[in-house]
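Before drawing any conclusions, I needed to go through one protein's amino acid sequence and its backbone structure tokens, quoted below without any editing.
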Amino acid sequence: MSNDNETRQATAYWTVGPEKGELRREELPAPGPGEALVCALYSGISKGTEMVVHNARVPECVAGNMAAPHQVGSFPSPVKFGYLSVGVVEQGPAEWQGQTVFCLYPHQDRYIVPVEALTKVPENVPARRAVLTGTVETAVNAVWEAGPRLGDRVAVIGAGLVGGMVAQLLGTFPLGRLQLIDVDPAKRAFADTLGVGFCHPDDALDDCDIVIHCSASQAGLQRALQLVGDEGDIIEMSWYADRAVTLPLGEDFHARRLSIRASQVGVVARARRHRRTNADRLDLAVSLLADPVFDTFLTGASAFSELPDVVQRLSDGSLDALCHVIEYPEVPATESTR
């Protein structure tokens, strides 16, 4: 354990230009009252959003809204971005010391945050799996937004990380029908692991009460309009960044009184906003990770020192992953028991 007054060195990942990232050293002061020093164990790469940042595609008009909670710098670069970090509290209030925590923090080996920014990881949730907390939180928000009812017919378009998470949560509901839809037939094995029915978009069943769109593609959203039933709801979870999307709203969109609603994790879904805080939502999300099925979403790991190369490989497609885990070199002894 370091002396409380000692100045520490930390290393963080920065996006420093289009398709260019690097590790930078920085100094950390001692934690102040109500703050904690966290030693990172793992972080996860949120491929969709982080690739948008890596490729400098964040639209200027939403740059402020899309900032991560502990982001440093601004878009397009240089910027320290990320939000799936799990670590152990090295210093801080007594009740937090030694606690395994999740934090919406960028990729960094040590960092200081107010304890209010930390979510305690339950004993029955492995620290590595806990990097998914932020993604499960996104899926929880979408389910709250959609509000499925007993016997509903639901389709989820896009069998990626977020789409799979949503399908996994919906699979616990007493629905009349649930289909996970993707153009890639190889995703069938993934859906089978989740215990969810899978199909190609051409074979999907229509007259759905709810369609949740997660493919970030124009074709996927157009198919959602075809699959949803009259007066049904489409929940749009995709972020298109600077890409334009064209929809056939001149067809039967108005005649069938369809609705498209955005779901974005920055605020709690309106249906629960007055009775749940962001912290409540995170506590719920991490508790759900006690289910080992979520290990299916962790598809590879690399050392922190390799992070710049890993991000570029994810960007150019030479590395395929749902959630790629970054491992940090200093793992406290307490982690061996988790």
